[in-house]
Design goal:
Layout: H1 2-18, H2 21-43, H3 46-55, H4 67-84, H5 91-104, E1 110-118, E2 121-130, E3 133-135, H6 141-144, E4 146-152
Antiparallel strand pairs: 1-2, 1-4, 2-3
Helix pairs in contact: 2-4, 2-5, 4-5
């Protein structure tokens, strides 16, 4: 058991060391912001948290020339970090964090909220879209959920 844990930690460390310095910084920002976002969403309404994070991002962020590729790269790296994060996070803090990381990179993205009936209850899910593409979730997620709030927040 301890040997398996040691091997798993070594693989993760080797994966981290292979990242570029910029990606290491992105991984740390993602990990720290995911913890902060999880805490803030327990204390404040989503709209307030998103407004606060939007104010922390410069308004005049230039759009990236290769925004689609960059958005996928950021999302893939963030999903890997979030999956290894010691604090469990639901879809909402993950979506808010990914939205903010994309916004900081100059990529216009939106948090989308959807619902799906499940038996006698309703399941909800939050995900991120940029330029019509789902990021950090399966591309067909929008087919499983009925959108109740899209294009939130609009770029400020």
């Amino acid at each position: 058991m301890a040997a398996d844990l040691g091997r798993a930690l070594l693989r993760r460390w080797q994966g981290y060391r292979r990242l570029s310095p910029a990606d290491r910084g992105l991984a740390w920002r993602g990990a720290l912001l995911l913890a902060l976002t999880t805490l803030l969403l327990r204390l404040l309404p989503m709209q307030r948290v998103v407004s606060l994070l939007a104010r922390l991002t410069p308004r005049a962020v230039p759009p990236a020339p290769d925004a689609r590729r960059q958005a996928k790269h950021i999302a893939d790296l963030f999903v890997a970090v979030a999956n290894l994060h010691p604090l469990p996070a639901t879809c909402l803090p993950r979506a808010v964090t990914l939205w903010w990381l994309l916004r900081r990179a100059g990529i216009d993205a939106a948090i989308v909220l959807g619902v799906q009936p499940q038996g006698g209850a309703v399941a909800a899910h939050a995900w991120v879209e940029a330029a019509g593409h789902v990021l950090g979730d399966p591309q067909r997620i929008h087919q499983a959920y009925s959108t109740i709030l899209a294009r939130f927040p609009m770029r400020q």
